[in-house]
Amino acid sequence: MNSFSTDVVVVGSGSAGISACFELYQKHVPFVLLEKGNKVGGAGKFGAHGVFAINSTEQKKRHVNYGYREAFNGLTDYNHFFVNGELLARFLKKSGANIDRLAEMGLPVTVEQSEQKAHLNDPLVYHKFNNFKEKMTNWDKLPDKFTAAGNKVMLETAAVDLEYDNGLKAVIAKNKAGAEIRIAAKKVIFADGGYCGSQEMMTANFSDTKALLNLGERKSTGTGIRLTHKLGADCRHRPVLFAHGGAPSMSINPMKRDSAVETLTNLPLLWLDQTANRFVNEDVVYDFAMWGNAAHNVNGIYYVLLDQKTLDTFKQKEVNLEDTFERQFCDVGQTPRTTVGPLPNIQTDFDEAVKTGEVVKADTLEEIAQKLQLPYSSLTRSVNAYNQAVKQKEDDTFLKPAAELLFDVQEGPFYAIIEHCAILGTLDGVNVDRNCQPVKEDGTPLKDLYIVGNNVNGLYSDGYPSYEGIANGFAFVSGWIAAEEAIKSLNQGEK
Length: 495
Ligand SMILES: Cc1cc2nc3c(=O)[nH]c(=O)nc-3n(C[C@H](O)[C@H](O)[C@H](O)COP(=O)(O)OP(=O)(O)OC[C@H]3O[C@@H](n4cnc5c(N)ncnc54)[C@H](O)[C@@H]3O)c2cc1C
Fold this sequence. Notes:
- The protein is an alpha/beta fold and 495 residues long.
- It is elongated, with a radius of gyration of 24 Å.
- The strands form 5 sheets. Strands 12, 13, 14, 15, 16 and 17 form a 6-stranded mixed sheet that branches. Strands 7-3-2-11-19 form a 5-stranded parallel sheet, sandwiched between helices. Strands 1-10-9-8 form a 4-stranded mixed sheet, with no helix packed on it.
- Helix 5 crosses helix 15 (470-491).
- Strand 8 and strand 9 form a beta hairpin.
- Helix content is 34%, strand content 19%.
- The mean pLDDT is 95.
- The site of flavin-adenine dinucleotide (FAD) has 41 residues, from helix 1, helix 2, strand 8, strand 17 and helix 15.
């Protein structure tokens, strides 16, 4: 077996891992970065648009009146006190300085208004990567910096095991060719991004796993969680899915918006669950996390029901509803469109989607019920109640705003878009202390081990909160905390 030694091994080069490496690099502590993929960067590079922070330099300049007290109390309360208070506090207190640090890393962000219609009036906490392509390029430049300083960056090499005996002896890695490598090390930081790529762990935690459209980092298969758990780390808690919106397909990205089927997915039309009942105020579409949670809550699948008249209206007219992804795709300074249509290709797009099975078409509601295996009586009841709400411009059950009660469902042909709950990953894993060390069931930390980013439990009670940029902000800050703590421990001669 090929073997060598270092001080610290960092597993994963996404937001948390690259941040940990940057700290080690700045403090001249030798490290090896292991990355399973053929390039650096996980969901933090290919996916995330921004990070949450309080008290950043820019926020201070702009006199943002939302600081530690508001954020700490807000998040604690929001999560019904199911939070790791020490960790949350440490994250929040470092989140502002993290913004300056991101600029030093070559990944600058600026404070921007929320990209979600539901959060336009929220305090200014969202710091956005203004040039997404540049972010990706600059991320890719970091390994050269690290290696020039004498560190190792090993691509297509995954951590697979640990040698541990009352302290870390070595990290065992495997490269693409299947060869094992033994890296004798004093500390390891697991930044491998949670477990959404592990079918086994997903199925064990989420009953709707098969229905989910997984847009997360699929190389994240729970390595750090499993290896620390094997050594006694406490993994007892409620699983937390990173649900985020919905999509009409298991294979396409709903954010690309190249089909009118996706456009209609992104609007508050009539939604029915698998029992043919309405289940939510469809206005939730304007809050990605809550939309995803609502879909997760009905077992990951729901239907958008419309009739031919509605489809034709979208084909010919400009409709006074905003596509929920509109603001995500506006560059800074661009004005978002608050209407949709006309959509000249809508009929072709729907006909195509009927062929692929993403949309079900039928002449009658009875036929829709048969094709989707829905109880017909519930379907007619739901449609009648909704039509009544549209007619009266009042939804006295789910309270959808009158301005969104635009389309009744009257005459065939009818169309049902089959929607899947989309996910960006998982948000639970290992219980940690304030230093991002995994703790045992008795609360004591596991020596020499650190675990960060999406691998960590303790920030969310049951789902992703409506605080934009929290997951990614935490990933960068937790990587930084873990590296700082590892360095401190090394300097104290703890090994
Ligand atoms: C499409 C999308 C959009 C998003 N948008 C936002 C947003 O706007 N704001 C926000 O806050 N969050 C957002 N997120 C979530 C955010 O990206 C994650 O919370 C964050 O990246 C988590 O950081 P991480 O370092 O834990 O994992 P990642 O950034 O995913 O990195 C994990 C890395 O570990 C590697 N790895 C896995 N297993 C191993 C192994 N055994 N050995 C070596 N390497 C391994 C992976 O290949 C990957 O490179 C988004 C996610 C997605 C998918």
